[in-house]
Design a protein that fits this description.
301 residues, alpha/beta, TIM Barrel, 8 strands, binds zinc ion
């Protein structure tokens, strides 16, 4: 990979401290429920076998990252046994996968507040396993992100323990195309309660409410200094249409792709498109590298 492909003066991404994609879906796809798998496979029939193999072989992913000029990726995982099919094993899967290159692969995991009891113990176990971020997916886990204000004590305990232990929490916002997903739970306004009640929690708002609720998402981002925007899933060439005032919050924006989710075909092309946007080089550098180094410091494992 040469930096010559990139506009501006950005370094080539795959050597430290290079470019971080905070949001890729490397998950135990074999656990997917059949009707969910059908949706996941749609449009990817010609490289489905490659993608399935990728979920078993970190070396294949590292090769994709090298070709794209990406140093690190966040491996998004979360339990959703009743809707997606992912059991708690998704946590061990992520941790094991990341062992192939701990500097470059950041395992994310989760605790399901509708099913788990001892939340503190579960969060501590995730940290012991090496998990770097807790993913909460309200439309796939079937509760609003602020359900702790409506009596869901396990969710409150989850936020509290992550805040105490300094473990970032990524919350999906926006819609989902998978069968059974409840899109109403993707509303970013619900992160307001989370940010108010847990001011020291590092919150990553995935997808910025795309495609319906960008105004609300931007309001939450401006209001709360502990909320970050992960731009994954937003077509990079349309990012400034979705968030015309992105530069105002640039010190809390994290680049991510959502690859290989439906509609996201190519890590490298996504990065190149982002780097072609009409933003100052310094801003692009922060979004692709600097902010992620702060949220996910390389040394802390
Ligand atoms: Zn995602």
């Amino acid at each position: 990979m040469t930096s010559g492909n990139f506009p501006g003066d950005l370094p080539s991404g795959n050597s430290p401290p290079g470019i971080t994609d905070v949001h890729v879906h490397i998950q135990p796809w074999r656990q997917l429920k059949p009707r969910v798998m059908d949706v996941m496979r749609r449009g990817k029939e010609d490289h489905w076998a490659f993608l399935l193999a990728l979920m078993d072989d970190p070396r294949a992913l590292l090769e994709v990252m090298d070709q794209a000029g990406v140093w690190r990726v966040g491996l998004v995982n979360y339990p959703s046994p009743d809707l997606m099919g992912f059991t708690d094993e998704t946590n061990e899967f992520a941790a094991r996968y990341a062992q192939a290159a701990p500097e470059r692969l950041l395992p994310y995991g989760g605790v399901h507040p509708r099913f788990a009891g001892d939340i503190r113990g579960h969060v501590d176990a995730l940290i012991a396993l090496g998990i770097r971020c807790v993913k909460i997916h309200p439309p796939h886990q079937l509760f609003p992100a602020n359900a702790h204000t409506q009596g869901m004590q396990t969710l409150g305990a989850l936020y509290r323990r992550c805040e105490e232990r300094g473990l970032p929490v990524m919350i999906h916002t926006g819609t989902s195309v998978f069968p059974g997903a409840r899109c109403k739970y993707g509303h970013p306004m619900e992160l307001d309660d989370v940010a108010v009640d847990f001011p020291d929690l590092t919150i990553i708002m995935a997808h910025g409410g795309r495609p319906l609720w960008m105004d609300e998402a931007f309001f939450i981002l401006r209001r709360h200094p502990n909320v970050h925007l992960d731009v994954s899933g937003i077509p990079p060439l349309r990012l400034l249409e979705y968030f015309p005032r992105l530069a105002e919050i640039a010190d809390r924006v994290l680049w991510g792709t959502d690859w290989p989710s439906p509609g996201v075909h190519d890590l490298k092309r996504n990065l190149q498109q982002f780097l072609s946007l009409d933003l100052p080089g310094q801003t692009k550098d922060r979004i692709t590298r600097g902010n992620a180094l702060r949220v996910f410091p390389p040394a802390a494992r």
